[in-house]
Amino acid sequence: MAELNSERFRTPLSRARGTGAARHGVSHFMTERVSGIALIPLSLWGVFAGLKLAAGDFEGAALWLSSPLNAVLLGLLLIAALIHLQGAVQVVIEDYIHKFTTKSALVILNIFVCVLSGFLGIFSILKVALTGAF
Amino acid sequence: MTDTSRGLPERPMSPHLQVWRWHITMACSILHRACVIGLYAGAVLLALWALALASGHESYALFTGVMGSLLGKLVLLGLTFALFFNIAYAIRQTFWDAGVGFAPKTADLTGAAAIAFAVVATAVTWVIAAATGAL
User: Fold this and answer.
1) Best exposed site among A25, A36, A58, B53 by fewest CB in 10 Å?
2) Domain annotation for chain B: domains and CATH numbers
């Protein structure tokens, strides 16, 4: 019924122009909210871990990452942060860059940077956690 | 409808920086965006830290050397502030999503509180860092 009503108010002109919602808004909104909420405890833990790691050396860091809990939480922190920031930065690009080619290039670059960082980070975490840092 | 690049439809834009009068809520909004850009670099740095550690002694020494320099420490100080501000902002936004805290006075107060929290939490973190030999 709601579907029918919204159709009634959509004029043929706006349809022809293709203006209106892309219908991906809720998915973006939920992704940003849920990742944002997950990042509150994860990033606080990250600050705590960072303080500990900065006071130690290479061996200390390798030993720290050999703990399954630390490796898993660090992996979750990295992935949640990258998912959250990929969406957040895409909105900034879409808001301020109006030229189609530049905007598209930056949106794609943003995805590449986040995916590359994620894979490099997770692979490195797994390598140190499973085989040590040598 | 002004110029449509490549025939794509014109979509509504966010109000741009220069159309706002200075106010605590708009300052928080812009600061939040700036912090997001900073934290983006921070997330990449986190991945690079793991990569440096997995690549062995020398690359880890290079990473800690760069981040331990004065410039590196300034970057980390900025990232600490950005992180704490974003945590406070995320909590504020979650209340907004529930429809709470939109009254102008409340929004001003929570905005100021978010900045104050970020400043205090950053100071506390760096005092702890200095006290535990992390600096």
Assistant:
1) A25
2) 23-131 (1.20.1300.10)
Shortest Cα–Cα distance, B44 to chain A (Å): 6
Dihedral of the alpha carbons of B98, B99, B101, B102, in degrees to the nearest 10 = 150
Q: Name the DSSP class of B22.
A: P
Q: How many CB pairs under 8 A join A and B?
A: 118
DSSP string, A54-73: HHS-HHHHHHHHTSHHHHHH
Q: How far is CA A72 from CA A1, A42, A65, A69, B120, in A?
A: 46, 11, 9, 5, 29
Please report how the helices A58-65 and A68-96 are oriented relative to each other, as an axis angle in degrees rounded to 10: 100
Q: In one letter, which amino acid is B112? A: A
Closest CA to A3 of A23, A19, A17, A18: A23
Q: Give, to the nearest 10 degrees, the angle between helix A68-96 and helix A100-131.
A: 180
Report CB contact under 8 Å: B43, A81.
yes
Query: Which CATH code for domain A26-131?
Result: 1.20.1300.10
Q: Which portions of chain A are predicted below pLDDT 70?
A: 1-22, 134
CB B92 within 8 A of CB B114: yes
Mind listing the pLDDT tens digit for each residue in A96-125? Answer: 898 999 999 999 999 999 999 999 999 999
List the structure tokens of A47: 């600050």
According to DSSP, residue B17 is labeled G
CA quadruple B131, B65, A115, B89: dihedral, nearest 10: 30
Give the ipTM: 0.86
Min distance B51 CA to chain A CA atoms (Å): 5
Put simply, whether A109 touches B (Cβ < 8 Å) is no
